[in-house]
Amino acid sequence: MIPPLRLGILEFLQQETHALDRKLLVMTAASGTANAAILAVINASVDVIGKTGPDWRHFSLFGIALALFVYSLRYVLYESTRISEEAIRRVRVRLADKVRRADLFSLESIGEADIHARINRETSVIVQSARPLFAAAQSAVMVLFTMLYVAAVSPIAVILCGAMIAGGVAVYLKDRRAVEEGLQDASRREDELFTALNGVLRGFKELRINRLKSDDVFEEFGAAAARVRDVRTRVMLRFSDSMVFVEAFFQALVGAIVFILPVLSGTFSASIVKIVAAVLFMIGPLSAVVMMIPVVSQVEVAVANIRRLEARLDEILAGSASGEEEEIAGLDRFEEIRLEGVAFSYRSPDGSVDFRLGPVDAVVKRGEILFLVGGNGSGKTTFLKLLTALYVPEQGVISVDSTAVTPRNVQSYRHLFSAIFSDFHLFDRLYGLREIDPARVEQLLELMQISGKTTFRDGRFSTISLSTGQRKRLALVISYLEDKPVYVFDEVAADQDPQFRAHFYEVLLPELKKAGKTVIVISHDDRYFHVADRVLRMEYGKIGAPEPPAKPARKRRARRGAAKPDEETVLQ
């Protein structure tokens, strides 16, 4: 059984824009009708010219049909472009909005490749296909009216044409379901290819240094590309075979009209010439319609993938509270943040627990410097992601003073924090900040000892292509400008030279505390543990007993370098 040919793109465009109005449909029909009318006028004119010479009446009808064709086709192409681009804009904005509102862990479980492919690649497939599909619809109308013209000339001919065309299209459509499944598989393989390419780009330095590693990664990339090739080749070969049959059916149709129709009708007259001309006139548009069938399949897959991602995001957001967000009163004047019985687990695809943090009980006090220490993989970063509400705990409660953090007030709670995680991202513009004084930015650049590496002008940094340590310093500049009550630093002092590391611990952190800020630092620099008011050690997802801050082996004098003057003023 041949699966029905769905036009999901029309449903998609209508749902997204509500702009598939009657005029667009009428113009699509008018374009096809005018195209068929041109053929009819030309054939009628040929009969007249042979008898009476040029006929200006037919010429006028030809001009009217041509003008209607140009106007209607132009309208269809312009309007379909506008509608499809608007639909894609809405989808991209809506998906991006849902992404930004989702919790971090759920997004990590979906994967960067999947999100990127759906918002970028799949939407591009739709927008690139919309206009050709409307043009194919116009061609389909033209074919329909051409068939009506053939029917007027010879009823037997139209039956013959219909049978041959139906046979050709049936051959083309019979494997459509298998093709769509193949395209779905190709989409998944392309996601794998994107992930492999991401690895090549992000690990470029390591690959250039280590030839064996580079060869292995490149081999894996080549294998991923080969899998995409194999799947897409298999799919398109199905279409190619079908297309050969379709073309053969078209040529056979012309032969049938020339050799079989005279036998069936008992005559070979001028009507045969008209029918042949009509069929030849129709082959181009009919081929355009048939050639769009694989495009329809690709669009169906793209729409399904987009809807699947959106359904997954909706599922994630369903756990969030609906309705108006709540504000936590007196948040800036909090006394403590308390975690009680908080737990979180990383799980394998089969549901087994790979790593579990907690249950943990912890208190962060206002105005203190708290160090979080422990070995790699002990759960320090996960603890901070829970503390900042980037991860949603499986159990337990996080509260500010006596107010529990809930889905309704979590966004208010997050405003407490300015965080620099180890995988932070730098923007070259100061998004989210208003009325920034460029002089203050330059002062902070000096404080972080990178004033000679980048400048701030016209709301942008001149460059963010800096070393890892310098990028962290620039992140500190942005964090200071955010001026939040709580600062979270995940290994910010790593990748820094000894001078700035001492500057960070013995100057910046105490100055933040003096300004009334709460500072939480993940650190392995035991030489500077004495800076902390408290030290919490994590092991295997658990928090040990509080450790007293270490005493400095000797009195240190901070090396402030170029940032010595006016350090207190930049914190005001």
Number of domains: 2
Number of strands: 12
Radius of gyration: 34 Å
The second-level CATH architecture of the largest domain is Up-down Bundle
Strand order of the largest sheet: 6-9-10-3-11-12
Approximately what portion of the residues adopt beta-strand conformation? 5-15%
Q: With helices defined by DSSP (H or I, 4 residues minimum), what is the helix count? A: 15
Relevant CATH superfamily of the largest domain? ABC transporter type 1, transmembrane domain
Specify the CATH class of the largest domain: Mainly Alpha
Class computed from helices, strands and strand pairing: alpha/beta
* Elements, N to C (H/E): HHHHHHHHHHEEEHEEHEHEEHEHEEE
CATH domain topology of the largest domain: ABC transporter transmembrane region fold
Share of helical residues: 55-70%
Low-confidence spans:
1-6, 555-570
C-alpha end-to-end distance: 75 Å
Describe this structure in words.
The chain has 15 helices and twelve strands. The protein has two domains: 309 residues, ABC transporter transmembrane region fold (Up-down Bundle), CATH 1.20.1560.10; 240 residues, Rossmann fold (3-Layer(aba) Sandwich), CATH 3.40.50. Strand 7 and strand 8 form a beta hairpin. Helix 6 packs parallel to helix 10. The chain has 572 residues and is of the alpha/beta class.
